[in-house]
Automatic annotation (TrEMBL):
CC cofactor: Zn(2+)
Entry's transmembrane regions: none
InterPro entries: ADH-like_C, ADH-like_N, ADH_Zn_CS, ER, GroES-like_sf, NAD(P)-bd_dom_sf, Zn_alcohol_dh
GO MF annotation, one: zinc ion binding
Family, as annotated: Belongs to the zinc-containing alcohol dehydrogenase family.
Protein name per Swiss-Prot or TrEMBL: Alcohol dehydrogenase catalytic domain-containing protein
Keywords associated with the record: Metal-binding, Oxidoreductase, Zinc
Database matches in PANTHER family: L-THREONINE 3-DEHYDROGENASE
All copies of domain Enoyl reductase (ER), residue ranges: 8-332
Length: 339
């Protein structure tokens, strides 16, 4: 099978690998669609401490079961499935209180074991979700990032409240859609790229550049302000601006991992009783809800995403990192001819 292998900063190679054999409790999937995640772009640039070369990345994916090991439940060869790539141990103290997303022994497909930037991938059957055969695999591959967004929205947004989002990349756009399905009233999205702001506006948001953010905030929310801001970028400027724009007593949900360290106005945070909450991945319930929203047709990838082949993926990694890519999301189709 063909596999796209990360070999070091800005180094990807297309290689021939043996198709894996399933262990007990595992399935071998023929990968139909796998999204390129922003965290994988950081890995590609050499900025990820947890992605070690050589590595087959890819954790947002949908595929068809090609082969099954023993003890896999009622799954069958030919089933179309979405995979939760987060594998928790189920036994540590974090898992026992229902926080498998911060399991002390967690593994992630595409980080700690080979991922789905390949024609085939081995996955735990317990992490698979069967979806209808007719469901678009490219849409289905958004389940993992959508679950990230659902988790973030739940951590901060109250029913029918206003919301401000920093970033109109894939996570920002999916956070917008998740928030609207969960009853958000008015949503303001901030980004530097006009194309991305256009995508957000088309999905129902008010939009502004960082330079316009304070004026847009005042115009949309008025004296009432906004109690929740979700930062899907995670750099010095977005973190500091979020602190300045959220209401006293408000909540900032930090999702973006763009920068490890930031110098922030912490005295303002203390004096205004601002809560800053880290949001990492999702719970099993979040993931299942993401699958349900996609299955019900409540989330769209139209206009803001595109697809490419495994062979074309290397050039697309470069385009996404140098800012020349037109689309916010690029989804790789390793198994040509099947969606």
């Amino acid at each position: 099978m063909k596999a796209l292998v990360y070999q070091g900063p800005k180094q990807l190679s297309l290689e021939e690998h043996a198709i894996p054999e399933p262990k007990p409790g595992e399935a071998i999937l023929r990968v139909v669609a796998v999204g390129i995640c922003g965290s994988e772009l950081e890995g590609y640039l050499g900025h990820s401490s947890i992605r070690k070369a050589p590595l087959v990345m890819g954790h947002e994916f949908c595929g068809v079961i090609d082969k099954l090991g023993d003890d896999v439940g009622d799954f069958g060869v030919g089933d179309k499935v979405i995979v939760n790539p987060l594998i928790s141990c189920g036994a540590c103290d974090r898992c026992r209180i229902g926080k498998g997303n911060i399991c002390r022994n967690r593994q992630i497909v595409g980080i700690h074991r080979p991922g789905a930037f390949a024609e085939c991938v081995a996955v735990p059957a317990s992490n698979m979700y069967r979806v209808p055969t007719e469901m678009d695999a490219n849409l289905a591959s958004l389940a993992e990032p959508l679950a990230v967004c659902i988790h973030a929205v739940k951590l901060g947004l109250g029913p029918y409240e206003d919301l401000m989002i920093y970033g109109a990349g894939p996570i920002g756009l999916l956070t917008l859609q998740a928030a609207l399905t969960m009853g958000a009233h008015r949503v303001l999205v901030i980004d530097r790229q006009q194309d991305r702001l256009g995508f957000a506006k088309g999905l129902g948001a008010e939009v502004a550049t960082p330079e316009q953010a304070e004026e847009a905030h005042a115009s949309l929310f008025g004296a009432r302000g906004v109690d929740t801001i979700i930062d899907c970028v995670g750099v010095q400027s977005t973190r500091e601006q979020a602190i300045r724009n959220v209401n006293p007593g408000g909540t900032i949900v930090s999702v973006g991992l763009g920068q490890d360290q930031s110098l922030l106005s912490m005295n303002h945070v203390v004096r205004q009783e601002i809560t800053i909450v880290g949001s990492y991945t999702y719970s099993d319930d979040d993931f299942e809800q993401a699958v349900n929203l996609l299955s019900q047709g409540k989330i769209t990838r139209e206009q803001w995403s595109t697809t490419c082949s495994l062979t074309e993926a290397i050039d697309n990694f470069e385009a996404l990192t140098d800012g020349s890519a037109k689309f916010s999301k690029i989804i790789i189709n390793p198994s040509e001819g099947e969606r």
